[in-house]
Design goal:
alpha+beta; four-stranded mixed beta sheet; four-stranded antiparallel beta sheet; 10 helices; 10 strands
Length: about 350
C-alpha cells in the first residue's frame, strides 16, 4: 500500500495543523493529557469545529459534512492526536448519525443532526445491561406500546458520560414473544430529562466517574422517537457498532503515546543507563510499534473501502480489538518505564 501523501494531502495537513495551532480553544489546552473533561469542554470543541466548517468530517455534505476524502479524514485525526486535542464524543457524531442517515426519517434527520454538528446536544448510548453485555441480544429493557407512546422500563449499565447527556439511544425489547432473541428489539431515542429516567454514577477503580447506570421507570416517549421499523432494532444496532469500531482504533493517539513513552524511557535510569537502552525494554517498544503500524494499515484499508462506497466490514471489529490491546500495552509499558514514579502513593 502506498502511504505517501499527495501534494494536495500535504497542503491539507498543513492547513489543519495551522488551524489547530491558532484556533484550538485556550481553555482546553492540556486537558487531553490530564484526561480531564467537562460537558462544556466537549461542546466547545465541537462548536469550534462547526464554525470552521469541519463539524462532521464523515457526514454527507447536504447535512453539513466536509466532503473530505478518507485520507483527509485520516490526516485530520492524526493532526488532532498530534496537537493533543480533546476527543469528540462519538455517540452522536459517529454512532447515532450513521444510523439516522441510513434508516431514519427525514424529520428525524432534521431534528437531531443539526444540534449534534453545532455542539448543542450531547448523546450517550443505552446498549449494555447487567447480564447483557457481550450477549447483548439477551437484553431485558422493555418498551410497551400505549397508543402513540412507548412505556419503557429497565436498566442500562456502563453508560459512558451519561451524566453529561441530553439524549440517549436505547435498545428495547418491543416483542417479548419473538422466536429469536435478536428479533423483537427496537431502537428508540429518549430525552434524558423525561420523567422516570435516573442516572446513577459508577465510580471506577481509579476513582473517576465516566460510566453510569441508567434506570427507566415507566418512561413515556413518543412512537416517533423510534428509528426505522418496530422490532428491527438489532439490524440498526449492528450497523451502528460497525461504525463505532471503524473509528475506535485510536491510531493517532496511540502514536502520540508511543512518543511520550520513548521520552520517559530516555530519561528514567535503570542500572546507570536510560531504560530505553535496555534491550528487553527496547524490544517491547519495537514490537508495539510494529503492531501499531499493522493496525494503521488496516484502518487505511477500511477507509479506502468506504471511499469506494463500501460500508465498514468485519475488519472494523479487528480495529476495536487490536486498538484496545495496543492501548493496554502502552499503559503497561508506560508504568514499567515510570518505575517508582508509577507506584501508588501510600
Amino acid at each position: 500500500m502506498d502511504l505517501e501523501f499527495s501534494p494536495e494531502d500535504i497542503a491539507f495537513r498543513d492547513e489543519v495543523r495551522k488551524f489547530l495551532e491558532e484556533s484550538y480553544p485556550e481553555s482546553l489546552r492540556g486537558k487531553a493529557s490530564r484526561d480531564e473533561y467537562e460537558r462544556e469542554d466537549f461542546l466547545l470543541w465541537q462548536k469550534t469545529l462547526y464554525e470552521r466548517g469541519w463539524g462532521a468530517p464523515a457526514w454527507p455534505k447536504e447535512y453539513g459534512g466536509t466532503g473530505w476524502t478518507s485520507i483527509q479524514r485520516f490526516i485530520f485525526q492524526e493532526e488532532c492526536a498530534r496537537a493533543e486535542t480533546i476527543p469528540i464524543p462519538p455517540f452522536g457524531m459517529n454512532m447515532l448519525a450513521p444510523v439516522l442517515l441510513a434508516f431514519g426519517s427525514e424529520e428525524q434527520k432534521q431534528e437531531y443532526l443539526p444540534p449534534i454538528i453545532k455542539g448543542e446536544t450531547f448523546w450517550c448510548q443505552g446498549y449494555s445491561e447487567p447480564g447483557s453485555g457481550s450477549d447483548l441480544a439477551s437484553l431485558k429493557t422493555t418498551a410497551v406500546r400505549d397508543g402513540d407512546e412507548y412505556v419503557i422500563n429497565g436498566q442500562k449499565t456502563w453508560t459512558t458520560l451519561g451524566h453529561f447527556a441530553d439524549w440517549i439511544f436505547v435498545l428495547c425489547r418491543t416483542d417479548p414473544s419473538a422466536k429469536k432473541p435478536q428479533e423483537g428489539i427496537s431502537f428508540i431515542h429518549v430525552n434524558m430529562k423525561t420523567p422516570g429516567v435516573e442516572v446513577k454514577p459508577i465510580i471506577t477503580l481509579d476513582g473517576s466517574h465516566e460510566v453510569n447506570e441508567t434506570w427507566f421507570t415507566d418512561v413515556r416517549v413518543p412512537v416517533s422517537n423510534r428509528v426505522g421499523e418496530e422490532n428491527k432494532g438489532w439490524t440498526y444496532a449492528k450497523y451502528l457498532l460497525l461504525h463505532e469500531r471503524s473509528g475506535i482504533a485510536g491510531v493517532g493517539r496511540s502514536k502520540r503515546a508511543v512518543e511520550r513513552l520513548k521520552e520517559i524511557a530516555a530519561t528514567e535510569v535503570s542500572h546507570g543507563e536510560p531504560i530505553i537502552h535496555d534491550p528487553t525494554f527496547a524490544r517491547k517498544i519495537a514490537e508495539l510499534e510494529v503492531d501499531l503500524t499493522a493496525l494503521e494499515y488496516t484502518e487505511l484499508r477500511t477507509l479506502a473501502a468506504e471511499a469506494q462506497g463500501k460500508g465498514p466490514g468485519p475488519e472494523s471489529s479487528l480495529l476495536k480489538v487490536k486498538g484496545t490491546e495496543i492501548q493496554q500495552r502502552l499503559t503497561e509499558l508506560t508504568l514499567e518505564a515510570g518505575g517508582n514514579y508509577a507506584a501508588p502513593f501510600r
